[in-house]
């Protein structure tokens, strides 16, 4: 099955798994998805990421994170740039998202990184998603 937007599919799988209160979420693997998941782990939105073999392909098994009241840590995860409408931002236009609690994830010429890091390195790029 061919997907037109695999990143949006990944974000939807995470969103649906959290609504259903699942502990784990399995996502088909790719390099950009791995980079985004690593940033989510680094920023404290997910607990752990493991690579699982699925035949000749790799899948990612994401351990979701919940607070003490069993509410998901990720309150909102949203795709910004889509295949039909790319959204680019310059380094000077990167602003704090949700009072610095939220995170912008950008694809830049220096790799996939958070908005804070991109602003510090003074690089712009494509806004992949927003997480809060």
From TrEMBL:
<dbReference type="InterPro" id="IPR000630">
    <property type="entry name" value="Ribosomal_uS8"/>
</dbReference>
<comment type="subunit">
    <text>Part of the 30S ribosomal subunit. Contacts proteins S5 and S12.</text>
</comment>
<protein>
    <recommendedName>
        <fullName>Small ribosomal subunit protein uS8</fullName>
    </recommendedName>
</protein>
<dbReference type="GO" id="GO:1990904">
    <property type="term" value="C:ribonucleoprotein complex"/>
</dbReference>
<dbReference type="GO" id="GO:0006412">
    <property type="term" value="P:translation"/>
</dbReference>
<keyword id="KW-0689">Ribosomal protein</keyword>
<dbReference type="GO" id="GO:0005840">
    <property type="term" value="C:ribosome"/>
</dbReference>
<keyword id="KW-0687">Ribonucleoprotein</keyword>
<dbReference type="InterPro" id="IPR047863">
    <property type="entry name" value="Ribosomal_uS8_CS"/>
</dbReference>
<dbReference type="GO" id="GO:0005737">
    <property type="term" value="C:cytoplasm"/>
</dbReference>
<keyword id="KW-0699">rRNA-binding</keyword>
<dbReference type="GO" id="GO:0019843">
    <property type="term" value="F:rRNA binding"/>
</dbReference>
<comment type="similarity">
    <text>Belongs to the universal ribosomal protein uS8 family.</text>
</comment>
<comment type="function">
    <text>One of the primary rRNA binding proteins, it binds directly to 16S rRNA central domain where it helps coordinate assembly of the platform of the 30S subunit.</text>
</comment>
<keyword id="KW-0694">RNA-binding</keyword>
<dbReference type="Pfam" id="PF00410">
    <property type="entry name" value="Ribosomal_S8"/>
</dbReference>
<dbReference type="GO" id="GO:0003735">
    <property type="term" value="F:structural constituent of ribosome"/>
</dbReference>
<dbReference type="InterPro" id="IPR035987">
    <property type="entry name" value="Ribosomal_uS8_sf"/>
</dbReference>
């Amino acid at each position: 099955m061919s997907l037109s937007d695999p990143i949006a599919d990944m974000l939807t799988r995470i969103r649906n798994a959290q609504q259903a209160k699942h502990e784990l979420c399995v996502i088909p693997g790719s390099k950009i998805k791995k980079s985004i998941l690593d940033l989510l782990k680094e920023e404290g939105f997910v607990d752990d990421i493991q690579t699982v073999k699925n035949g000749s392909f790799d899948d990612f098994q994401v351990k979701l994170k919940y607070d003490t009241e069993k509410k998901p840590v990720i309150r909102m995860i949203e795709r910004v740039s889509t295949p039909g409408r790319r959204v680019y931002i310059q380094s000077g236009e990167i602003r704090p998202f949700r009072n610095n609690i939220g995170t912008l994830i950008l694809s830049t010429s220096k790799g996939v990184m958070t908005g804070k890091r991109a602003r510090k390195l003074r690089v712009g790029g494509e806004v992949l998603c927003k997480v809060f």
